[in-house]
Every structure is written in C-alpha cells, then in structure tokens.
Amino acid sequence: MAKFGMEDVTKAISKWRGSPVCANPGCRTTSMFGITRRHTGIRMFDQWFCGADCFERGAHSKILELLATRRQEKPAALRMPLGLVLLSRGILTHDQVKIALDQQKETGKNFGDMVQELGFATQQNVTAAVAAQWNCPVFSVKDHPLPTEIRIPTILLQQYGMLPVHFSEIGRKLMVGCVSRVHHHMLYTIEQMASCNVAPCFITANEYRQRLELLALSAGENELVFDRDNPVGEIARLVRNYVNQLGAEEARLGICRDYLWVRMLGRQPMDLLFRMPNE
C-alpha cells in the first residue's frame, strides 16, 4: 500500500481547493491546515509563497543559490584584433596601425579611442569594426525613440556600457546596444528579469552617452540602490519589507557583476540593487 506524507496531503488539499502550494517546505499554515487563497501571496519566478515570512525564507535561499552559481564572464573568444579589422576595411594603413599601437602602449588607452584621437578613423568606423569583431549588427539610435516597455536599472547600463534601443511586442524581442563588447551573462539576466528575448547590437559611444542621460532623468522614482555591503539575511529582510510596503505580487531576483537585482511587480513596480557581499 502506498504511503502518503504530510506534503502529499497538503498538495491534495490545495488541488481540491484550487489553491497553489506554498513553496516554503516549513510553511506551518499550509502544512497544518492546507488553507491558502489563490489571489494572495507573493510569486518568485515559478514559486509561490503564502505570506511575508515564507517569502523571506524563499528569498534568502534564492540569494544564496545565486551567489553559489554566480555567472562568471567567460574569457572572450579569440577575435581578429581591431587594428586588423580596420586595416582589412581600408580604414587604416599599416603605418597608422603601427603608430596607434605604439601610442596605445605609451598611454594605455583603448585602441579604438587611440585611432580616433589620432584622427585615423571616425567613431562610426570604430563602432562598425567592433561590431564585426562580435558578429553583431550596428544600430543607429538617431530618429529612434528608446523603448519604454523594458526597464533596466541605470547603474547596470552604466556598468556594462549598454542601452536598450529597440523593442518589439511580437515575440517580446529586445535589442540591446553595446559600446565596446557583449556581456552575454548580463543579456541572460535581462531576459530572466524582463521576460523577453534579447539580442545584442552595437551603437556609438556618443549615442550611448546622450541617450543614457535621458534615461537617467526619468529613472529615479523606480530604482533604489543599496551600495553598503549587507549580509544575505539582511538583504532578504529588506526585500520582504519593500514587497510588503509596495504590495508587490511578484519578485524576481538576478545576479549582475556587483549587484543583486530585485524586480518587484505589482501596483508600483520597483527595482532594488543590492551590492553583493564578497562571499
């Protein structure tokens, strides 16, 4: 005869009542009574928590999981040096490549910036060459309004040198403009946090700076950054408090380079950025 434990009983009761099961294994309310209400609680990705206490425990576990599996950017694949790309396109001569490399060694500056300072190439030339290195298209931001459907915290756009430049509701496709390189782990995080499909492209540094300033002006009300190092338990408590305060129905968590990104969805959407502890 098959044996049934409390967890099986809880799931059966919840299924009978048409209610979800709290994802906290130690949830006393669900375990003891099987009483949950479909339209209350907090969702975190594919998990549902019946209340603030259970959500805090779930958030704590999720943060530890993200820290343990933090995505390290893999070394960039071998790519044709920028100087050779510009040479092959007829933008630079052999002598100009040599001069730029010598100047780069002395100054430590980026090669693309160096050839622009020397007047050997335009910003558009360099952007197109870098895009070719990464096998990505070039996108002209001019005359294209920035998408407002997808929000990415300003501090992350600054840290990664990227910008959302185009969004299509068909297939929820987002194009993210990069300046110097593609950060694939960040694109993956954006996909998870914004429920969209992300593709990289390249834009000029001037376009990036100009549009970033416009985004920064309108971002303050929906973003909050905690730059002080906090232990995981304290971060989980803070997230719980903001979820309660804002009446959020769903929270999503993702790891970026230095920050835990928490997106709260509900009546008042909000992004929280917590500087992550070293360990």
Q: What is the approximate shape?
A: elongated
Query: Can you write the helix and strand succession as a string?
Result: HHEEHHHHHHEEHEHEHEEE
Low-pLDDT windows of residues: 31-39
Main pleated-sheet profile: 4 strands, mixed
Which whole number gives the mean pLDDT? Answer: 86
Total E-strand runs: 9
How far the N terminus sits from the C terminus, by CA atoms, comes to 48 Å
Tally of separate helices: 11
Q: How is this structure best described in words?
A:
This protein is α/β, with parallel strands linked by helices. The chain has four domains: 6-68, no CATH class; 82-133; 154-215; 220-275. 44% of the residues lie in helices and 17% in strands. The protein contains eleven helices and nine strands. The strands form three sheets. Strands 6-9-8-7 form a four-stranded mixed sheet, sandwiched between helices. A hairpin with a 4-residue loop joins strand 8 (259-265) and strand 9. The radius of gyration is 24 Å and the shape is elongated. It starts with 5 loop residues before the first helix and ends with a strand.
Brief overview, please?
With 279 residues, the chain is α/β, with parallel strands linked by helices. It has four domains: 63 residues, no CATH class; 52 residues; 62 residues; 56 residues.
Q: What secondary-structure arrangement, pairings included, does this model have?
A:
Blueprint: H1 6-17, H2 28-33, E1 42-44, E2 47-49, H3 52-68, H4 82-88, H5 94-107, H6 111-117, H7 123-133, H8 154-160, E3 162-168, E4 173-178, H9 184-194, E5 197-202, H10 205-219, E6 223-226, H11 232-246, E7 250-255, E8 259-265, E9 270-275
Parallel strand pairs: 4-5, 6-9
Antiparallel strand pairs: 1-2, 3-4, 7-8, 8-9
Helix pairs in contact: 3-11
